[in-house]
């Protein structure tokens, strides 16, 4: 009888030690229902239920931990979502390469420096446009430095060659600037170039506004790619706001009044008066009335005090 009960509860998934304890307390003649109630009261669980609960706990620990487990892949979603708040970048490869090469050599290393700068900021959409004939071996009239970088960027799907071909020994080149402006306009991105694209501005009025507002100029300082902190001028947005899709515009700063406290325009003055910030700006007549009422009221109080019985 003892062995049959032991086998029965073992099949249910309970441990042998828990079953031995219950049978010793209740006796070998105890009913199966009583033994089951005692096992439940002791908090004993079948092994099948414990095995189902363990994977859930492991998943929770993995997602919350900082280890390199498969659950930690959830932590990388924030990095991939950077395209939600950063604008796409379209780089004029010829302009950047010639600027880095002092307008004498087509320096591909300058393109790599620009791409790395935007990658470090978290931009995921970066495209560089270069004419196809730059893949040809360099010549004396068009020297190229570090040409292997173009092939590496092409494998990374960053560099795009604009089409060109030869007809009767003459090279026919497509206008790569139109590619650059068109892609940046469709992606609502930023153009990285020191070129003003004046011919394209006259060609399309929508492109004119876009080039004026989304052109990011730059400089190279000791092999360092450096765009300006104020791309649209002194009173424009900062570089971070310029490269963001939803920039936080700073509050406009009001110019202080050159006359200061001697200003006679009152609330009609368009300049800022720090001495009037805490109180409403009154007109000149109201200010004079307010100053006159104070001594008059004091004089009436003194007369009332003197003539009072």
From TrEMBL:
Transmembrane segments: none
Every C3H1-type domain range: 251-276
A GO CC term assigned to this protein in UniProt: nucleus
Zinc finger (C3H1-type) in chain: 251-276
Alphabetical list of Pfam families matching this protein: RNase_Zc3h12a (PF11977), UBA_6 (PF18039)
Cofactor(s), by name: Mg(2+)
Database matches in CDD domains: PIN_Zc3h12-like (cd18729)
Assigned keywords, A-Z: Endonuclease, Hydrolase, Magnesium, Metal-binding, Nuclease, Zinc, Zinc-finger
Gene Ontology MF: a single term: RNA endonuclease activity
UniProt protein name: Putative ribonuclease ZC3H12D
